[in-house]
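Sat 14:20. Reprocessing the chain from the morning session after the first attempt stalled halfway. Input below, unchanged.
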Amino acid sequence: MKLEIGLTDAAPINTSYAPLAVLGAIYQATGQLAFFSEGEFGQIRRVFSAGELLRQVLWSMLAGCETLGEVNGRLGGERALATVEGWARFADQSTLSRLLDGLSLKQIEALRAGMLTLMHFHSQVQHHDWRGYLWLDFDLTGLPCSKRAEESQKGYFSDKKTRPGDNWRGSVPAPTARRSTQTCIQAASTRAIACVRRSTVPKLL
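Finished this time. Tokens:
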């Protein structure tokens, strides 16, 4: 497919992701994503094959989608970008989610091998001049993931508030809540504070 890229200062525009269209054309010309159409990935499921849906997941990542929930908003109206890949449109985000949930272990291994080959082809580390230093920049920003994600761990984000749990006082139902009053008296002999607690429990009729 021959692509013509141009600039415009006024609407309408046919895509917001022209660089992705160029990248897709390069991938097609070089066959670097051919593994997406091989084996089980090439079987058609209604409109799209499994490989086409996986490529759309890749495009959503390159388009800046942090989760599949952003696919419809970012790529839902990108008809021109979809045409470059030979699709009439992009699949719905729920279709992509069901595909990922249903991948078999064999398909995951094939996908991992294909992406590893692609990464080695474009990796700057593979072509690095090892006579000099290799500077690595680690991004320690936490990313949310599913409980079923491989090697996922329970963690916490420093800029997020902790969600109240079942033991939080505010979550106790009103009829069973205990109201208490607390009076503190400074002890003369020690620096500790002695507290006397008087509480009343409402009766349930």
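The longest strand covers residues 179-186.
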